[in-house]
Design brief:
The chain is of the alpha+beta class. Helix content is 24%, strand content 26%.
């Protein structure tokens, strides 16, 4: 009885062709992934910065054309979809950051910082007490809080409105906490070490870099306010 012929291994030429096609496929996938990363981490920054800059310029034009503090509503009246003011954090070296209402992606993706309205409503700087809690992206879409880890105790955080400079001093940070930890933006953020009401500012963003698994928190407390003069001379902390 004859034996069936055993299967022969594929020829070297067929195997070489397969490996060549596989290599080309992997190179293509790598290029696509590289382009996606470049878009996410660079091009979205370009677009967001361009859009935020244009809106910031518009806000400043509105301020210049508005009547003085005695002839116009208070700063809260400027709480429009365009923005309420500008955040300055010298330690981040990120220039001025337009601040708008809300922390949803469609707000923060515009290259701005947003103040919380949910699950805790932030107190605005001109209110008698509370926590002016802000969020911004750490990577992509402007990455306004990318260098938050450079902010240390004693550093200045300044918020600029049409009429007033609000000068805060950083007093605590929390380098990693759950994204569900809403106590860090409460009116009295006890994890910061404070137990009594005050006028606080809280900066929040994602951590580690390039992920959104946890949150990075920086707390500051108001130390003084300065009226804006005709030349909009910045406070000493920004000179």
């Amino acid at each position: 009885m004859s034996r069936a012929a055993s299967p022969q291994p594929p020829s070297r030429s067929v195997l070489a062709g397969f490996l060549s096609l596989l290599g080309e496929f992997l190179i293509t996938v790598g290029l696509v992934l590289g382009l996606f990363v470049a878009y996410s981490l660079w091009w979205t920054n370009v677009l967001a910065d361009r859009q935020a800059s244009a809106r910031g310029d518009e806000i400043r034009r509105q301020w210049q054309s508005a009547p003085g503090a005695n002839g116009a509503p208070g700063p809260g009246a400027l709480d429009t979809q365009d923005g309420i003011g500008f955040l300055h954090v010298p330690a981040m070296e990120n220039g001025e950051v337009l601040v708008k209402k809300g922390t949803a992606p469609d707000v923060l993706d515009d290259g701005v910082a947003g103040y919380y309205t949910d699950p805790v409503k932030a107190a605005l700087p001109w209110e008698a007490s509370g926590n002016f809690a802000l969020a911004a992206h750490r990577d992509g879409h402007g990455a306004k809080f990318h260098a938050i880890d450079k902010v240390k105790n004693g550093d200045a955080v300044v918020f600029e409105t049409r009429d007033t400079w609000y000068v805060y001093k950083v007093f605590a940070e929390l380098r990693q906490t759950s994204k569900y930890n809403v106590d860090v933006i409460s009116a009295v953020p006890k994890e910061s070490g404070r137990t009594a009401p005050g006028r606080f500012i809280t900066l929040t963003t994602c951590t580690p870099v390039y992920t959104s698994k946890f949150r990075y928190i920086v707390w500051g407390e108001l130390v003084r306010t300065e009226k804006v003069d005709a030349q909009r001379t910045p406070p000493a902390e920004l000179r």
